[in-house]
Amino acid sequence: MTVLEQPGAYAPAPPPSWRPRTDAAPLLPDAEPYRVLGTPSGDREAAEPDAGLLRRLYAAVVHGRRFNEQATALTRQGRLAVYPSSRGQEACQVAAALALREQDWLFPSYRDTLAAVARGLDPVEVLSLLRGDWHHGYDSPATRVAPLCTPLATQLPHAVGLAHAARLKGDEVAALALVGDGGSSEGDFHEALNFAAVWQAPVVFLVQNNGFAISVPLAKQTAAPSLAHKGVGYGMPGRLVDGNDAVAVHEVLCEALARARSGGGPTLVEAVTYRLEAHTNADDATRYRTDSEVEAWRAHDPVTLLERELRSRGLLDEKAVQEAEEAAEEQAARLRERMHQDPPLDPAQLFAHVYAEPTPQLRDQADQLRAELAAGEETR
Amino acid sequence: MSTAVRQPAAAPAVRKPATMGQALRRALRDAMADDPDVHVFGEDVGTLGGVFRVTDGLAAEFGPDRCTDTPLAEAGILGTAVGMAMYGLRPVVEMQFDAFAYPGFEQLVSHVSRMRNRTRGGMPMPMTIRVPYGGGIGGVEHHSDSSEAYYMATPGLHVVTPATVADAYGLLRAAIASDDPVVFLEPKRLYWSKADWDPEQPEPVPGVGRAVVRRRGSSATLITYGPSVPVCLEAAEGAREDGAEGWDLEVIDLRSLVPFDEETVAASVRRTGRAVVVHESPGFAGPGGEIAARITERCFHYLEAPVLRVAGFDIPYPPPMLEQHHLPGVDRILDAVARLQWESGFTEHVGVGEGRRGGAV
Prior knowledge:
The complex is a heterodimer of chains A (380) and B (361).
Chain A: H1 51-76, H2 90-99, E1 105-107, H3 113-118, H4 123-126, H5 128-131, H6 140-143, H7 155-168, E2 175-180, H8 187-199, E3 203-209, E4 212-213, E5 216-217, H9 230-234, E6 238-242, H10 246-261, E7 267-272, H11 291-298, H12 302-312, H13 318-339, H14 349-352, H15 360-379
Parallel strand pairs in A: 1-2, 2-3, 3-7, 6-7
Antiparallel strand pairs in A: 4-5
Helix pairs in contact in A: 1-2, 1-12, 1-13, 2-10, 7-8
Chain B: E1 16-19, H1 20-34, E2 38-42, H2 58-62, E3 67-69, H3 74-86, E4 90-94, H4 105-112, H5 115-118, E5 128-133, H6 148-152, E6 158-160, H7 165-177, E7 182-187, E8 194-197, E9 212-215, E10 220-224, H8 228-239, E11 249-253, E12 256-258, H9 262-272, E13 275-282, H10 287-299, E14 308-312, H11 323-326, H12 330-338
Parallel strand pairs in B: 2-3, 2-4, 4-5, 5-7, 6-7, 10-11, 10-13, 13-14
Antiparallel strand pairs in B: 1-8, 6-12, 9-11
Helix pairs in contact in B: 1-7, 3-4, 8-12, 9-10
């Protein structure tokens, strides 16, 4: 008889019970992206979209398309250092802006200039980063649009922290953070979603899955069933939506933002879309994708989808289309004209905002640059 | 920059031994009591009170929303702190150890340090990042780094480190009150150092950016900070008996690496004519190189010898059983002092502007 076989020497207890902490099933995305446009009215889950909303979305995507074209043209004219176009993604950009209430915050990436413009910001101020006259051109606290963020996914924890702070202060504020499919591979994506879920922060993450991170397709980016599936790992719902369907994106975001504001916690939304242009004006997309792939997505164009819906419901005629295009053209012309004026530059600003008070060393360097500039003036 | 140190009503001073850890804790407590926007968060800072117990009792006193345990993710801690600062809070975050702060570097370098500049002052980052740093506690790998050079090389950050119990309180209050991000480096091996200190009547400390002369001397200046300050003071005592005549060493505690107090350093070196910079951080591309260069630029005609450095070796931080060979100690400091060309004939005890060989100022 061994020691363990002696009666009473060792009373084995069952292992402590284990249960999943939340039910995973409700957090999982649907198998198909949610769509409204192009589906028969009878099949639609939600009520028919409001005519006023449809008109606002349409005007905004038409303007957005023209804005993208104009900004890309400005790179060729030497007026923008670079422009990462959101052509093809206008539905996401516009729906994101229009889903926000005034007190909500938007956290855009560098490809989301259009979302900021659609929110009503001055396009010249929004383009400051890409023009290169400063790193950032608009008043973030006043507009509640964070600076366009270049290091991928690093804006996501900012959105979580701001939303958390708002909740601590008792304000009914939600934050909407934009990121791409490539950004979802970054560590900050993971940390932000984890913090958001643990803190139940009022934040919504919109992943615009446009198919490519510069040249790398999604298949090389992730082995997940979909990016929306990543939500379940953090304990937040993942929603999958047709990113070229402005009505569907708007509806899903409004729902998620309302849930966030009312204390329901964060949501991960994956919008399936496509970047019709190259990564930036400096990129050559023909090296990594075929024309036929691009053509297939052109046939599912966000502007056309919306236009067709409005026409079929009798909300748009030839004259209204023309008016929308003329309005967009007018705004593009105004932008072009303003961007062709040289921006005011002040080298002294380089030292003015490094610290609240410049250090003695920075004062010396500011003096040095001032003296150099003065000497340059004299010799001219 | 204001320190905003609370001045309580006059009470009979009760000065009794307190540790640096206790003074830091008291500074956090008083800052939280004075300003509801001050939020402390990080790994294990809540229920446990931090692995060094610096946040002990804060969650109990102010609740879990003011002193918060976070998930174990340094980029997440710093990134959410950025968002909280955007909304007007004043986050005080703890990085558990020097080498565990590295995952947060991108947030620190790309956002915390630049947000004020990017937004032309529209979005300042009034944030304090507490980092226990340095060796000498027998820590295994990744627990003893001196990471100050990385932070110093990042424009937009202030870098501060206390060496005394009183400074621990005063500098942390000043850091939290600052409207700029402050990397607050806490010398781990001084957490248990003691001094007579009255928490009800803390000594006022000037804001971030001022050095202090810890010991007056005339022969040479030791310039140091944080964990090496007590070592340099000990070396200065030893120097009295060392050498043929004994050296009377001045010891400067920088307290703030950024901003760097050039005036205090230059005034001292002009008086003594000789300088040694002492720190644990590796010497190559370390703080001592910058300090030596600035002394040379500003005090060249007053110098009797090259500015020397006593620093950690240019090696990954050694295992605990070998760390005593790496850390600058009294003997290594005195060896450096002995190499300051004493035969050169510099006249001691002369005023600024005198004692140089050849030529006017």
